[in-house]
Amino acid sequence: MSNKLYTYGIVEQEGLELDVEGVGGAESIYTVDYRALSAVVSDIDTTDPERTDDAVEAHNDVLQRVLEYDGGRTIVPMSFGMAFKNGRTLKGVLRGAQRALRSTLNDIDSTVELGVKVIDSGEDETAEEIAQAGMTDRLSEASINETENDLFSDRLIVNKSYLVDREHRDEFDAAIDTIRSAHDDVTVQYTGPWPPYNFVDIHIGTDQQRGGR
Amino acid sequence: MFILDDVLVKPFFSVLDILHTMALGEMYDMGSIRDDIKENQLLYEIGERPKAEYEERKQELEAELEMAELIQSQMRDRMEVKR
Asked: Predicted ipTM?
């Protein structure tokens, strides 16, 4: 059996063990501890996993599962592909980044990321004006922080990620409902909860771990 | 004749070369193809594009992206040789 470790993210020190499909055909995930931190990992045969749609989906599914496990966990997500030769190498990396990781865990404590895309129906030319006239103000009020993402399509009016306190999730959901009922000329794609990819910026080892999907 | 050819024809080929490189750059713009991939995914996710059409378009775009990567890397090599 391989002792290479694929890493999904970092949580406050805790012994987690879950049956969930991981990257590279793993059937369970567990934690490797270093002082007050735990890396969520699964066994893998390679340190260079292939980036397929299924593998990326498995990576995200594990993060989501941990994020929602037993009332919710705060997790600093890793980008896809972080695999280590063994536990010792992983612990070395955790040692080097422990200050940044602890600080980030503190910053994103009890939060989740929610994604909002507003898509123009393509029929109403005023949709963009409506959007710019404060459509997302209530979302901003119900969140702690937000980032503007790339408008990769002409039909995209809004593409934002919000950092929301778990306890204020209902307010955010209500704001989404308000937008949906007030603007039937647009489609609102509301996704999450995600680990706060867009609000984490930690450099680990030689690879930069930056948020963003 | 050789000198005349060199003076008159060489600049013409240089301009053509630049125009050709610019046209290729525009045709194989990886950023724009990546945007199209994301748009295809989005339209599928919101139910505007049926699965079969989404998958067919995805395959086309992935092939375009692969070709664009190849062309762009060849263009970079050419620029480096000229410097």
From this structure: 0.75
Q: How many contiguous H segments (helices) and E segments (strands) does chain B have?
A: 3, 0
| Global confidence as pTM | 0.80
Tell me the angle at which helices B30-45 and B51-82 cross, rounded to the nearest 10 degrees.
Answer: 170
- State how far residue A186 is from chain B, nearest Cα, in angstroms: 11
Domain parsing of chain B, residue ranges: 2-82
Distance from B39 to chain A by nearest Cα, in Å?
6
Give the tens place of pLDDT for each residue, A145-190: 999 999 999 999 999 999 999 999 999 999 999 988 888 888 999 9
Q: Which of A60, A119, A190, A213 to mutate to test the interface with B (most CBs of B within 10 A)?
A: A119
Q: Which two tokens stand for residue A107?
A: 């910053």
Could you give the domains of chain A?
Answer: 4-108 (no CATH), 111-194 (3.30.70.100)
Task: Check pLDDT > 60 for residue A37.
Answer: yes
A155 and A124 Cβ atoms separated by less than 8 Å:
no
CA torsion sign for A66, A72, A188, A160 is negative
- A81 in helix, strand or coil? coil
Q: Which helix (H) or strand (E) holds A114?
A: strand A111-120
